[in-house]
Amino acid sequence: MENVSLYPMKMIPAAHTAVWGGDKLKRIYNKKAPFDRIAESWELSARSEGESIIENGTFTGMCFGRYLESLYGKSRFPLLIKFIDSASPLSVQVHPGNHEDGAEPKTEIWYIIDAVPDARIVYGLRDGVSLAKFAHCCKQGGNSVEDLLNFVPVYPGDTVFIPAGQIHSIGAGILLAEIQQNSDTTYRLYDYGRVDAEGHTRQLHIEKGLAAARLYSESEIYGKRFSAAAGAFCKASGGGELLADCEFFRVIKHTGETVFKKSPDFTALLCTGGCARLICEGTEYPVCAADTYCLPPYCEDTFLTGGAEIVSAAASLQN
Q1: Could you give the residue ranges of the DSSP H alpha helices within the chain?
Q2: Residues in the chain with pLDDT values less than 70
Q3: d(CA 52, CA 44)
Q4: Which residues 6+ apart lie within 8 Å of 144 measured at CB?
Q5: CATH number, span 9-225
Q6: Distances (CA, A) of 79 to 59, 224, 227, 319
Q7: Are 268 and 292 in contact (CB under 8 A)?
Q8: Is CATH 2.60.40.420 what the domain over 241-315 is classified as, yes or no?
Q9: By CB atoms within 10 Å of each CB, which of 13, 43, 155, 180 scores lowest?
């Protein structure tokens, strides 16, 4: 790729609203949207229903999908990266693990940025609850479903890995970064009986969701989370805490001074706290909380000065 400008690209996200969305992304982090509450800020996205846009440099104003097609001849990016703000709980849901019936598989990881003192998530079912019992309650309807769910408290700095098929939900009062396979397929199993302003309930997908759901042991989840121990992506050089290393992405948390080495992979950098500077080939790029940069493949070494917490996610177009 001779004569192509390779530099840290700051991303303008695509904002999405939802009945459960909060106001932190707009009020505190100055994300732009024509609505009051931003539920999801799609920070790095090549999806037509919400593409991020390059804010700086040679490719200013270009949609990320067009950038990929122009430079790499690819129309699809393997990941979808978001900030999510929940003022109320999301539906209890599950994502598929295969492409049956046109579904898009989805394994994801959450990094908790902020959480109210009593914040909790749904992570699977309570000990001893079978999928058959859960299926029966889902089909019967009513709030008895909640008695079967495994509610887990979460705190800022926690990481939650969610393989495809895991029953889950984000609770109220949580701000998180989500790195996921490029998918927008969600099967809602339970939605707390809530209705919209017109009194309508949201659609549930009980049959498809139950077909996709499965129960995991802790060892199975750990194995999937770190399944690419041999290295599907370039090894990190510069330290950091490894949050996940699976076949779909490699996620690392960095604090303090860090160098992101030249790599054949795309590397997304999500600032989850503080402010600092990225320095690449003598050019400085300011980075503050809720900013997202994308380092393209073979971008020269990029240095992060101290003062910010960064979550990086590596992805290969070969996936």
Answers
A1: 24-27, 64-72, 131-140, 206-212, 218-225
A2: 1-2, 229-238, 319
A3: 6
A4: 137
A5: 2.60.120.10
A6: 20, 17, 17, 9
A7: yes
A8: no
A9: 155
